[in-house]
Task: structure prediction
Amino acid sequence: MTVTEDGNRAGDAHPLVEAGPGPRSWQRAIVDLRQGWQQRSLWGYLGWQDIKQRYRRSVLGPLWITISMGVVATGMGILYAALFQQNIYTFLPYVATGLLIWNFINGCILEGSEVFIANEGLIKFLPAPLTLHVYRLVWRQTLFFLHNLVIWGILMIIFPRPLGWQLLLAIPAFGLLVLNGGWIAILSGIIATRFRDIPPIIASITQLVFFMTPIVWSYEQLRSSNNPAVAERARIAEINPVLHFIEILRRPLLGESFIGRYWIVVGVITVIGWAAALVCLRNYRSRVAYWV
Result:
């Protein structure tokens, strides 16, 4: 049997080096997620620099995040308390806490749809996992939320609530919000990179969802209405998935009772969402660099 110049014997049907996984493989998708997480020192630094850059040359710096949020929450709380004839003592913390949570969700959705488009230069010229940009986005929104959480602390001092063991549920609740922010950014980011009409569509939908979600209006008030027709229609609001994400975190922050159905719905959405995101990451991860 003859030997060729590259050292392989003629007629040998088996290559000396086995081929690696193709671009569409679960292994590459999982490795991308794992390697992105391992580079947390990088995306953690970049996420913090994003906030500092936004308030560069400002005297108060990132404190403007809390100040602007506090002004909006106070103004909307007072306005809607007057419109709906609610007790400002309970309604202002209700509205402000809902806005804090909504800002996190809204930020993950809106910025998630442009996460890869906004990082076009890094994706093309920096050999880094694709999910690094997703981790950076979610981390940045987490920092915004933690800044704004000061408002909740101030409101609890001014309008004290009976906070008990339920407050501990805020930790896993926020963890679920972070997990869902990740799959939303991956899924919407890849789709929006291919179809550039998606971001403005998502922006329009989120504006509508804000008014359909019980943030500045009380869902429980409508459910307990003396009018049976109004109470029945109020139950339709539970079709809105954002309601469940708001409630699993707002209720423990306000010292309200645990309701299991909100957590069940959020858990199901988390599993389905991550399954869809992993399929999308597996099939189209290698194409993002060309689409941007």
